[in-house]
Automatic annotation (TrEMBL):
Domain of life: Bacteria
Role noted for this protein: May play the central regulatory role in sporulation. It may be an element of the effector pathway responsible for the activation of sporulation genes in response to nutritional stress. Spo0A may act in concert with spo0H (a sigma factor) to control the expression of some genes that are critical to the sporulation process.
PROSITE patterns: OMPR_PHOB, RESPONSE_REGULATORY
DNA-binding region(s) in UniProt: 129-229
Lineage of the organism: Bacteria, Bacillati, Bacillota, Clostridia, Lachnospirales
Record-given protein name: Stage 0 sporulation protein A homolog
Positions of modified residues (4-aspartylphosphate): D53
Length: 232
């Protein structure tokens, strides 16, 4: 059974979330402040996914995300945001969040997106392959590490999954629709197209010497993206 840490201070929303998540087979630990979340995350390894509200009485879910990403780049993180917080949404993704859902939301949709992220994380961990090699990039699937020109890249879980998808299809165009469906396991209809643009930009900043003139991660306008093999 997967265990989720829920950081939320709205008592009414907490009741509904706890009921729905437990009914869907998840164990849920709930905290209502950044301070309490940090205390629980001293034992970060016992959680499979984090649900983080953005605005808390003593700070922000962004603080928790930043703390987690320094120690664990892979654990899936979903932000719970207000519908008018577009700037916060972009900030959360930039900090390493994997997904977000805007309030008010349908509990069934949230559970679907949680399962999608957990499945994608599980597939990455249990892949039968041990490595992907494409020109100057090597993806160590067992160690969940990426080396570019021999240098280790610090990637979040979403960035890692996106890179794996593109490298597996090196020199071929991968449509935006395919990426959304693959990364969100068929729940791509729920994901704002702008979210993918943020992931691509963030990944490009890590893999390109000049992000404004990419050599690896190429945009194919009107279609999607392509990972171009560069000799090692």
């Amino acid at each position: 059974m997967h265990r989720i840490l829920l950081l939320e201070d709205d008592a009414n929303l907490i009741d509904g979330l706890q009921y729905s998540l437990k009914k869907n087979g998840f164990e849920v630990d709930t905290v209502r402040s950044v301070h309490a979340a940090m205390q629980r995350l001293a034992d970060m390894g016992k959680y499979d996914l984090l649900l983080l509200d953005v605005t808390l009485p003593d700070g922000s879910g962004f603080e928790v995300c930043g703390y987690v990403r320094e120690k664990n780049p892979r654990i899936p993180i979903i932000f719970l945001t207000a519908a008018d917080e577009e700037v916060n949404i972009i900030r959360g993704l930039d900090l390493g969040g994997d997904d977000y859902i805007t309030k008010p939301f349908k509990l069934g949709e949230l559970c679907s997106r949680i399962r999608a992220l957990l499945r994608r994380a599980g597939i990455a961990e249990s892949s039968g392959d041990t490595a992907l090699v494409c020109g100057d990039i090597t993806v160590d699937l067992l160690g969940s590490r990426v080396l570019l020109g021999g240098v280790n890249l610090e990637l979040t879980g979403a960035e890692y999954r996106l890179l794996c998808l593109l490298v597996r299809n090196a020199n071929r165009i991968v449509t935006r629709e395919t990426i959304l469906n693959e990364l969100w396991d068929g729940t791509g209809d729920y994901v704002d197209d702008n979210t993918l643009s943020v992931y691509v930009r963030r990944l490009r900043e890590k893999v390109e010497k000049e992000p404004s003139r990419p050599q690896h991660l190429i945009t194919v306008r009107g279609f999607g993206y392509q990972w171009r093999e560069v000799p090692a």
